[in-house]
Structure formats: C-alpha cells, structure tokens
Design a protein that fits this description.
The complex is a heterodimer of chains A (583) and B (135).
Chain A: H1 3-25, H2 36-59, H3 65-77, H4 87-95, H5 99-110, H6 119-141, H7 165-196, H8 199-227, H9 234-240, H10 247-271, H11 279-290, E1 296-300, E2 307-309, E3 314-315, E4 324-328, E5 334-340, H12 347-401, H13 403-423, H14 429-456, H15 459-464, H16 466-476, E6 480-485, H17 493-513, E7 518-526, E8 529-536, H18 549-559, E9 563-567, E10 574-581
Parallel strand pairs in A: 6-7
Antiparallel strand pairs in A: 1-2, 1-5, 2-3, 4-5, 7-8, 8-10, 9-10
Helix pairs in contact in A: 1-2, 2-3, 2-9, 2-10, 3-5, 5-6, 6-7, 7-8, 8-10, 10-11, 10-12, 11-12, 12-13, 12-14, 13-14, 16-17, 17-18
Chain B: E1 6-10, H1 14-26, E2 30-34, H2 37-47, E3 51-55, H3 63-76, E4 86-91, H4 101-104, E5 109-112, H5 118-125
Parallel strand pairs in B: 1-2, 1-3, 3-4, 4-5
Classes of the chains: A alpha+beta (583), B alpha/beta (135).
Chain lengths: 583, 135
C-alpha cells in the first residue's frame, strides 16, 4: 500500500473520530450532552471500521475489502453529524441515516475479499443501497421535526416539502415493511455463499455467519422500533446496540490474525513431523495448517504427462475445476500444490506452505537417496566379504594343487631314494642319514603347509558344510567341547563361512584366554536366521573391543545384516552369540 | 590267473603318478595310469584292476564320484562273483578335511599322498588296516 495513501487514511480517520467526539460535547444543542454509553458505542464502531479498513487495505491492497470497511466507517459517521445544531448538518444526518446499512449489506456479500460473486449479489447490493439511501430521503420529505418528535429546539429540515403527519406516518410504515425483505435477501445470499464455500474460504465464511446474526438482528430491531413503540428499551437499542455493529471488523481482524498464525502453523506442523514424511502425511499437515481440507499435493515423475495426487488420483492441471489454483513447488522433481483459489488472497501463506512442502519433499528425496546409497554400501560390503572368501577358497585350493602337490611328490621321491640307499650294499651311511632327515623335513613342510592352507580356508567347510566343519574344529580344540546342535543341511556359502569363523574364533579365544575347562557349541536354524552360540565356563571378562578378533568377526556378521553379542561377566564365563540372517 | 596284483593310479599330476608307479611297482603291482575321471572309467573297464589309487581332486570330477561309478559299473557287469576293485582315496589334504564323505563313499580307505607306501597299499588288498587312516 502506498505510504502516502496510508498516511492520508490514518489522518482522515483520526480527524473524523476526533471531530465526532468533539461535536457530541460542543454541539450547540440545548440540554445535557449525549449519554456516555452512546458516545462510547458510536465512537467504538466508527474507530473499528476506519481502523480495520486501513489494516485490510494494507494487507490486501489489491482487494476492495479495505475500501468497503473504510466507506462503511464514514457512512456510519454521516448520521452523527446530527450533533451539530445546524440545519444543513441536521438535514444531511437525517438524509443519510441508513447509508451505512447499505454498506453493511455490501460488506457481507463481498466478504471476505471485497469481491461480489455474481449477478444476484450485484442486484441485491444495488437494491440494498438504493433502498437505504432513498428511504430516509423520502421519509424526510414529509417530516417536520418541529411537528413530530422534536421540539422547537430542532434545526430546520431542508428536505421538507409536506409536513402532514399522516403522510409521514404512512411513509414510515411502508418503509419499515419493505426493509425486511431487503435485509432477508442479503442474509439469504450470505447463507448461500457460506454453503458453497469450501477449502480455505470456509473458515472466513463461518466467521461471517456468526457476525451476520447480531448485525442483521440489530438492523431488524431498529426497523421494528420505527413502527412499534420500544421506547422502554431506548438505552439498550440506541446506546448499547451500536456495539453489535463492531462485530464485522472484530471478526475480520480475528481471521487476519488466524491467517498470520497459520503461517507459523505451517512451519510448526512440518517441523513436528518425523524427518522425510510420507507425502500423504505432508499433505494432511499442510491442509490442516492452511485450513484448506481440499488441498492436493500432486507430483509427476520426469517425463510423465500427468500429475498424481497423494490419493493416487490423476490431476489434470490444464482443466482444473473452477475455484482451484496451482502453486508449483521448488523441487527437482515436478510437484505442485492444488488448492482453493481463495488462498491467492494469502500469497504469503501459500509461499510459506510451498517452501515448507518443497523442503519436506526434498528431505524425503534425500533420505530415499541415502537409503539407496546405504543399501548399495551394504550390498558392496557383503560382496567384498564374499569376494574375500572366494579368494581364500581359491588360495587354499591353489596351495594344495600347486606347492603342496610338488612337495608331496618331492617327499615321495626322497622316500624312494632313502629306501634304495638303505637297500643298496656299501652305500655311504652319511647319505642314508641325510636322506632320512630330508624325508622328515619334507613331511614337516607338508604338515605346516597343510595347517596354513586350513587356516586360510577350511576345505572341510566347502566339502561337507557346517556340521562336519564344526565337528573338525571341536576335535582340534584343546578344551573339552560339546556340540549341542548343528543343522545338517547346507546354507549359502557366506552364511556357512561366517558361522564357521564365529565358532573358530570363539574356540580359539576359549583356548587362549578363558581358562575354561569346558565349552559348548550350539548352532540352530530359526525363522530364517542361523543362531550360533559358543559358551564356556571360564574367567569371563572378554571384550569385543577394537583390535580383538571379535571386532573383525562382528564386522563380518554385520556384513550379512546380522549381529554379534558377547556376554562375559568377570568370573561368569563367556557366551558369544551371533545371529546371521539366512535367506 | 594273475600272479601280479594290478593297480590303477588316477591323478592329474604326472609327477605324482610317476612316483606312485615306482612305489607300487616295487611293491609288486602291475600299474596302469589315468589322468581324469573319464580315463579312469575306461582304464578300469580295460584292465579290471584289483586296486585303484584315486585322487580326490580331479580336473573333470572328484574322486568320490569316480569311486561311485567304478563300484556301480562293477556291480552291473558282475564278473563271475569276483569282488570289485579295492579303492583307496588319496589327497594332499588330510582325511579330516573331508569330514564324513570318505566314510560315506564306497572306497575302502584313505591315504594321504605323502604317506603313500607299498606296504600300506598291500595292506588294503589283504584286508588289513595298516595305516590307521581308514575311517
């Protein structure tokens, strides 16, 4: 809003309010000044409309609502020129007594953005204006204040053409009777607007319905008071009653504050959601925060022709129903908010919502990306372990097929040479001894290489699976070890190797550190998992810290998505448990 | 009637076969050789050996499979009630590396390659377990 316009409006409002207050007390009318309640209520209403007019104008410069409030305020001011004891002011005040009612009808039908919705609105607003402008003018043509109502103290009515009291009375009654259908038409259209409103506008229309009740009620009572003697209630009707007219500006300000709170609600609704919310939940949170239950969050994948909302319905942006509006989101994928068009009057709110939604979607996208990367890393870790195992298997086989094979042949050759030297007559005794020790060395080399190969990868595991391999481990273990259970079937090579290394490492630890007298090995297949447990009756106090064989083992188990736990209270033995998923 | 016992050495490693032949011949065997499982089948059919020294790792199959086939072939083409060949499995690995597979095979026993000796093999022919390696 133009600052000069705003300054002018504020100045005009202050001058008008001050002027009205002053004229109540410096009026020139004989007798005491008006009742304090009357002064307060009329001034409150005037200030409420002029003030709200400025605020609304400021908030929505493009809308007419601010102008309507302002005009209603000045229309309310005109009849109070009555306080000035001059014929012209007196006549203007009486001739414009109901203009504000025309403005109120306009305000109600143009609620909440100052725009009339159709032909019926325009007709009713025009009739309402015409009626409320013409009615007092016509009435004043036949009203001589010095004959009816007022004593000689009243200034002259400049509009007077015929002061027959009979004419005045008839005109007044006809006017009152005609007022009811006009007011009823306004109310009826307001109800129609309210029932048709959906989405964001519904909230503002709900407020209007509540506001219309006191305003229409008050105006009706004023009309009735013209024909029925309600002078007993003068204080209530004319002094306190005007306060009811402050309801529209109050309601408007309240909904403006709600809109401001909604901006905060959008952010807090999204902040309070779990990270990377599901789009349907994001939609619900936005719909609640914006007060638009019809809100749709629609997206399309790159290259797709149509958008799909969170309920899976296709959204054709090219042919949206009337009253719908699209706000694109700033995301790499294509996503839009489709919402009640009334929200265009709250561009700031939409901007905040769109930014928040973009952020949430971006978050969700990043999270999905990280999940994909995590899955890839997990898969590659498993593949690395698998490749390592395959390499160890190959190494073990190559050792036996290559070096070991040659060593065996060599050993046999030495053995034959030794036997022949032993059998030959007159052979060198040193040669015999030499061949004997060479044969021993060769056998020792074979035994060492065999142990080395077995450490690289146990052939028995490849050959027979877990049962035989664990049996072989247990037989070599220096601590008395019982195998409580091992499934006889075969499992994926990775699972078998991991279970084997768990038992192997555990038994090695039992022998090295546990000071145990007995150990128990249990392997069970349960619900798609292999549960491996090795326990001993030793000293306990084992730690799965870094550097120990257990840490490497835990990594290996984790590479298959399993877990390794160590229970080892000091003095309470050690229980090593591995759970290995087994597809 | 044969006077010399016959033996078939099945191993893809030529050097080992040569020394095995030396050892077996000095123990009085008449020796034929085969390098693969397929060769072993035809050689066994041709010479009907009394003893087969069978490496577990073969290029085309494994010793357990060859042992099964040799035993089955003998049963099908039964030779006047004569017993089938005595099969002795061998490997650079130890018996424990094969778990229960050796016991489950039709082989009479297992001899690690580095412990190959005429005495041990003759023992198998005579139905004696001299080596202690048979399960």
């Amino acid at each position: 809003m133009n600052p000069r316009l705003r300054a002018a409006l504020i100045a005009a409002a202050l001058v008008t309010i001050t002027f009205q207050l002053v004229t109540f007390y410096v009026s020139g009318w004989p007798g005491p000044p008006p009742a304090p309640l009357f002064v307060v209520s009329t001034t409150v209403v005037l200030a409420a409309y002029l003030g709200t007019g400025i605020i609304a104008w400021q908030r929505h410069p493009a809308d007419k609502i601010g102008l309507l409030f302002t005009l209603t305020g000045y229309a309310w001011f005109l009849p109070h020129l009555l306080s000035l004891h001059y014929a012209l002011a007196f006549t203007i005040a009486n001739g414009t007594a109901f203009v504000y009612q025309g403005c109120l009808g306009h305000l109600g039908l143009a609620w909440p953005y100052g725009k009339l919705r159709g032909r019926a609105d325009r007709i009713v607003v025009a009739v309402n204006y015409a009626w409320n402008i013409a009615n007092p003018i016509v009435a004043n043509l036949f009203w001589n204040p010095r004959v009816t109502g007022c004593s000689a103290a009243c200034p002259a009515n400049l509009l007077l053409i015929d002061d027959s009291p009979r004419l005045y009375q008839d005109a007044g009654q006809i006017a009152t009777l005609l007022s009811f259908p006009v007011t009823a038409a306004v109310i009826a259209l307001i109800v129609v607007h309210w029932r048709r409103s959906r989405g964001y506008a519904r909230r503002a229309m709900n407020a209007l319905i509540w506001v219309s009740i006191p305003v229409a009620g008050y105006i009706t009572i004023l009309n009735i008071a013209d024909v029925v003697d309600l002078s007993r209630y003068n204080v209530l009707i004319y002094q306190a009653g005007p306060l009811l007219l402050a309801a529209p500006p109050v309601a408007y300000l309240a909904s403006a504050m709600t809109a401001r709170r909604a901006r905060g609600a959008v952010s807090s609704a999204l902040v309070s959601m779990e990270p990377g919310p599901h789009p349907a939940k994001l939609r619900d949170a936005l719909a609640r925060a914006l007060g638009d239950p019809t809100l749709q969050l629609a997206a399309r994948t790159a290259g797709a022709a149509s958008f799909t909302d969170t309920d899976g319905a296709t959204v054709d942006l090219a042919s949206l129903p009337a009253g719908r509006m699209v706000t694109p989101l700033d995301t790499p994928g294509e996503a839009v908010l489709v919402h009640d068009a009334e929200l265009r009057h709250e561009p700031e709110l939409i901007r905040v919502a769109a930014a928040a939604a973009s952020l949430a979607l971006e978050h969700a996208r990043l999270q999905a990306e990280i999940q994909v990367q995590l899955d890839q890393v997990r898969a590659s870790r498993a593949r690395i372990v698998e490749a390592g195992d395959a390499e160890r298997r190959r190494l073990e086989r190559d050792l036996h097929d290559g070096a070991q094979q040659r060593l065996v042949t060599l050993s046999l050759a030495i053995g034959i040479a030794r036997d022949r030297a032993a059998a030959a007559e007159g052979a060198d005794p040193d040669l015999k001894a030499l061949l004997e020790s060479a044969s021993k060395e060769a056998r020792a080399a074979i035994a060492e290489l065999r142990e080395l190969a077995r450490g690289i990868h146990p052939a028995v595991l490849t050959q027979t699976g877990l049962e035989g391999a664990i049996q072989a481990l247990v037989e070599r273990s220096p601590v008395t070890t019982q195998v409580r259970a091992v499934p006889a079937g075969r499992f994926p090579a990775q699972v078998e190797a991991t279970a084997y290394f768990v038992v192997s490492e555990a038994l090695a630890n039992v022998a090295k550190h546990a000071q145990a007298s007995a150990a128990v090995v249990t392997v069970r297949e349960q619900a798609g998992r292999l549960e491996v447990e090795v326990s001993d009756d030793g000293a306990g106090g084992a730690q799965a810290g870094s550097g120990s064989g257990l840490a490497g083992l835990a990594d290996r188990v984790a590479s298959l998505g399993g877990s390794l736990t160590v229970h080892s209270p000091p003095g309470g033995g050690t229980r090593l448990q591995a759970v290995i998923p087994c597809p | 009637m044969r006077t010399w016992p016959t033996a078939l050495v099945v191993d893809d490693h030529e050097g080992f076969r040569a020394f095995a032949r030396l050892i077996l011949e000095s123990a009085g065997f008449t020796v034929t050789e085969a390098a693969t499982g397929a060769e072993a089948a035809s050689a066994a059919a041709a010479t009907s050996p009394q003893l087969v020294l069978l490496d577990i790792q073969l290029p085309d199959t494994d010793g357990f499979e060859v042992a099964r086939r040799l035993t089955a072939a003998h049963g099908l083409h039964g030779q006047h009630g004569q017993p089938g060949p005595v099969i002795v499995l061998t490997s650079t690995r130890e018996a424990s590396d094969y778990g229960g597979r050796i016991a489950a095979s039709p082989a009479a026993g297992f001899l690690p390659k580095d412990q190959l000796s005429g005495r041990a093999l003759r023992g198998y022919l005579e139905g004696e377990d001299l080596n202690g390696e048979t399960p």
